[in-house]
UniProtKB/TrEMBL annotation:
It comes from the Bacteria. Residues 17-115 form the SseB protein N-terminal domain. The lineage of its organism: Bacteria, Pseudomonadati, Pseudomonadota, Alphaproteobacteria, Rhodobacterales. Pfam families: SseB (PF07179). This is SseB protein N-terminal domain-containing protein.
Length: 245
């Protein structure tokens, strides 16, 4: 079982939108072995493209053994992160078939890859102003707690603490902010970018979610993440991102 398989409790195309978005987010960070038409010539790659009824697609697996198993023999391939492959295929106006025959099988057409690359282009909005912070809205906690906890688990060693707080408004939180502690200055832009990407795959929240790096103790009412475990109370199904069909 790979990390993608473990997320595929329900097959990708039968899963609810939040689960599909979570799988796509993981796909972006997964090293994929993509089939080539021939051995690379220098730094030039020619992807093997299959003409399906739904449009041309490349084939990739999260392991070269899976790729060879699909063809029944060794095959020329290139290894690259899913985010890089998605960008290449967007230029080719082709889709992507991932892990055929395995729990995490997914068929992403060109439009879906375009949505994915747009989501990955998300940039963070940071806010270090002195804000009046309060407890996060319960609906926001239900929508964001579990997937953010999983993302923070990937950052073990880069940050020491993380919390989600509301920004006080007249009638409750007017927005939300992620408070990140213990991040080295040189790592903060990459961490902020990774969190902005993660948020772009989740249901949008009223007022948005800002990101702040500070070693100041978060307010008592803030939701604090356990960085040693990605386990959080189960969330109800929130309003989902666009259905990726």
């Amino acid at each position: 079982m790979t990390a993608l398989d473990e997320l595929a409790v329900v097959p990708f195309h039968d899963a609810a939108s939040p689960q599909r978005a979570r799988m796509l987010s993981r796909l972006a960070d997964t090293e994929l072995s993509v089939a080539l038409a021939r051995e690379p010539a220098g730094d030039r790659l020619e992807l093997q493209i299959f003409p399906l009824e739904s449009g041309p697609v490349a084939l990739a697996c999260d392991g070269e053994d899976r790729l060879a198993g699909f063809f029944g023999k060794p095959v020329s391939f290139a290894a690259m992160p899913g985010r890089v492959l998605a960008g290449l295929l967007q230029q080719e106006k082709a889709g992507l078939l991932v892990n055929p025959g395995f729990p995490s099988e997914m068929l992403l057409d060109a439009a879906m890859l375009h949505w994915l690359t747009d989501a990955l282009a998300a940039t963070p909005e940071t806010d270090e102003a002195r804000l009046r912070l309060t407890a996060a809205d319960p609906a926001t906690v239900e929508a964001l707690a579990e997937p953010l906890a999983m993302r923070f688990a990937d950052m073990s060693g880069l940050i020491s603490a993380a919390a989600l707080a509301g920004i006080e408004g007249e009638n409750g939180p007017s927005g939300h902010i992620l408070l990140i502690a213990g991040a080295a200055t040189e790592h903060q832009p990459a961490i902020a970018k990774a969190l902005a990407e993660a948020l772009s795959f989740l249901p949008p929240q009223p007022g948005g979610v800002d990101i702040s790096f500070s070693d100041t103790r978060p307010p008592q009412a803030a939701l604090r993440f356990n960085l040693e475990s990605s386990e959080t109370p189960p969330a109800e199904k929130p309003k989902a991102p666009p259905r990726l069909r």
